[in-house]
Amino acid sequence: MKVKICGIQDLDTALYAKQIGTDAIGFVFAKSKRQLTAEQAEKIADGLKEGPLKVGVFVNETLEEIKAIADQAALDVVQLHGDEPPELAKQIHLPVIKAFSFQKGASLSDMLAYPADFILLDSPIGPYRGGNGTSFDWSLLQNESFDRSRFILAGGLNTENVEEAIQIVQPFAVDVSSGVETNGMKDKMKMKRFIQTAKGAKQDDYIYTTR
User: Fold this and answer.
1) Quick one: which of 18, 144, 172, 174 has the most CB atoms within 10 Å?
2) Model confidence over 113-130: pLDDT tens digits?
3) Which of 76, 122, 147, 187 does the annotation list as catalytic?
4) 3-state class of 182 per DSSP?
C-alpha cells in the first residue's frame, strides 16, 4: 500500500516522513491552512534530496503557474484539485493526479475518463478543496468494477479507520493530511502509526459492515 502525506510545510516533517517510509508528500499551493510558497517548497525539496515523491497540489491554477512552480520546487507529480478541464491536464509535463469530490450519485465513469495518471476520490467539498477531515461512504465503491491500480483514496482517513477503508475499497494508495495532525500541526507519532497501519492492512477477504 502506497501512502501520501499531504500538507507538508517544513523540512523537519518532510525528513521524518522520508524516515518512516512515506511514498509521497504533498505541497499545497492553493488557498488552505497548509498553503506554502514555491520558495518554501524549494527549500524542503533541496533538503530532502532523494526521498518521497513530491506532489504539488493546485486548485484552478493556470498552466503557466503550475509549470513554473513545478520547476522551482522540483515536483515529481502535479495534483489538480479544482475544476481543471481535461485539456489542461494533457499539457502538464509531469504525471497528474486528478482529485474529485465523491458522493452518492456521482458518476465514477466520468471521473475515471479524465486524462490523468491517477484518480483521487475525496470527501464532498468543505471549507477547502481537501484536507477537511471528513470521509465519504466507502461502501459506495465496494462493488464498483474499475481499475483500482490508478485509484487513490482520501478524505477523513486516520490511524483508526485507514485499515477498514483499505479493506473495503482496495485502493492503490491512500492520502492523509488532517488525520495525522494535532492542533493543526503534523504529529510525528500519528504519522508513524498511520504508515504502519496502512502498509500492514490486509486487502482481501473483507465483508463490508456498517461503520
Assistant:
1) 174
2) 999 999 999 987 655 555
3) 122
4) strand
